[in-house]
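pls design
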């Protein structure tokens, strides 16, 4: 039933399977029919499930399965069909929304918020990220995207959220307030790479591989300490692409799931649904900020 996602003699539940568990069993008690599966479904309810599982990574914590064992491949396909029929997932395969990109600056945490727009060059952050990923050991890190103070991350807005990153982002750390900045339309000339499936991700790793085993083995290697781990070399890719976007469907299928690649394994972690990371500063005008506060769960206003 679950042969597709067995790796390293371990089975890793996908976010999509866990969302299916949430919608089909946790909420309704079972999917005996399409009508039962669709009962009470709304975009907000679906994203409550995505938000729940975005904060929980069973790959790193063996006791955090949070999946009903009754979930089958048929249940997954049934929920996919229902979400499609209701129009809830109509945009989950769509590329970056060039006329609707929102950047978020979280407020109220332990760190002083960074200035926005960033006042530096993302190239230096990318160089530092690649260097540290290839040379630093210690406790290890688990994030895949090139995080840095000058690397902008954007996502689209939805009726229930000023930015999808506020409800679908991973490792949110309990922030209660945020400033949201709206970008002017992104030029068609902006080179944005789309990750819509596993092969799209593997292409980046093959074209510009960075061996990050030394920094990832203590976290990612919990099932196999001998495996080598690879991520894209964001410095090299910045010469080819301005940004990289992860679709919602790709997130649900790939997040926290090891994939075989030349020389070892690779994985997407810490990269939320519909998030776009800008390897080069986006050529846009920023409007805002709009100050929002968490109202509970996925709701911000």
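designed seq:
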């Amino acid at each position: 039933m679950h042969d597709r996602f067995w790796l390293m003699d371990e089975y890793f539940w996908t976010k999509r399977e866990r969302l299916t568990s949430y919608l089909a069993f946790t909420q309704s008690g079972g999917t005996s029919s399409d009508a039962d599966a669709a009962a009470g479904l709304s975009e907000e309810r679906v994203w409550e499930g995505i938000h729940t599982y975005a904060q929980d990574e069973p790959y790193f914590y063996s006791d955090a399965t949070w999946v009903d064992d009754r979930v089958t491949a048929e249940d997954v396909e049934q929920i996919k069909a229902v979400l499609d029929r209701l129009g809830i997932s109509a945009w989950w395969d769509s590329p970056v929304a060039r006329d609707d990109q929102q950047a978020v600056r979280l407020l109220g945490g332990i760190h002083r918020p960074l200035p926005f727009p960033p006042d530096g060059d993302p190239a230096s952050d990318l160089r530092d990220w690649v260097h540290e990923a290839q040379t630093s050991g210690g406790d290890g890190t688990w994030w895949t995207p090139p995080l840095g103070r000058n690397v902008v991350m954007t996502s689209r807005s939805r009726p229930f959220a000023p930015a999808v990153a506020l409800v679908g982002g991973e490792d949110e750390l309990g922030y209660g307030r945020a400033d949201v900045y709206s970008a002017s339309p992104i030029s068609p000339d902006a080179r944005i790479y789309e990750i819509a499936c596993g092969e799209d991700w593997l292409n980046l790793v093959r074209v510009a591989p960075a061996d990050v085993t030394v920094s990832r083995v203590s976290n990612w290697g919990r099932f196999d300490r001998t495996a080598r781990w690879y991520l894209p070399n964001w410095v090299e890719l910045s010469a080819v692409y301005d940004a990289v976007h992860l679709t919602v469907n790709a997130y649900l299928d790939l997040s926290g799931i090891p994939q075989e690649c030349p020389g070892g394994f690779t994985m997407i972690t810490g990269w939320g649904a519909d998030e776009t990371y800008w390897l080069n500063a986006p050529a846009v005008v920023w409007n805002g900020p709009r100050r929002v506060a968490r109202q509970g769960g996925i709701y911000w206003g």
